[in-house]
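Researcher: Next sequence.
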Amino acid sequence: MTVLRGRPLVKELERRFVIAHSQVDLPGGTVDLMHPENTDALISEEDMVRDDRLPYWADIWPSSRVLARALAVESGAGRTMLELGAGLGLATIGAMRAGYDVLASDYYDDALLFTSANAWRTLEREPRTRMIDWRDLPADLGIFDRVVAADVIYEDRYPPLVANVIARALAPGGVATIADPGRPMVEQFFELLPGLGLRLRNTELIEYDEAPAKQTIRLHHIVLLIA
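Model: Next structure:
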């Protein structure tokens, strides 16, 4: 099977989808994100029946914008990062701008294709990508200096899954950051951390006011208990 990269990948996505473009301001310059024009058209009955999957990856969420901007000003040279639920790749792009070696992961193949295409269009290089099911983590996932995710704890089943991924993938001395708009399930997520050898180090509150959304985004920073 031929793996498309760069311009051929962009052309293939333009062939398969009705494409729209959105401009997102990040430190280092505005990012032109390509994405499917109509996310409702991506809903698959088969995915819904199998595991209730919906194509949230195709939207640009406020939490991902805030996380991307925060990552873009970090010092990532020589450090590794795992993004959970990469979606369209915005946070991955911010991290790559900061110098991180990023593994972008998602549960949708198409999300990873858009992540690669958007990174190439912005930076002329691509992250490593991997499809990961949080319920069945690969044995060779490895550990990372940073583990990040934007607005992924939005259903009752996700707090233990996300907490377990962080416990598995966060390197000693590393920091995980969850960007969240105030989902009620996050409190359950916090309660699970000590039992997995993790603790909430601190939370930053970032006011987001870009039409049509006005939210307080919380950047929850998590470390190992021994850190």
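Model: Residues 206 and 225 are 25 Å apart (CA to CA). The longest helix spans residues 109-123.
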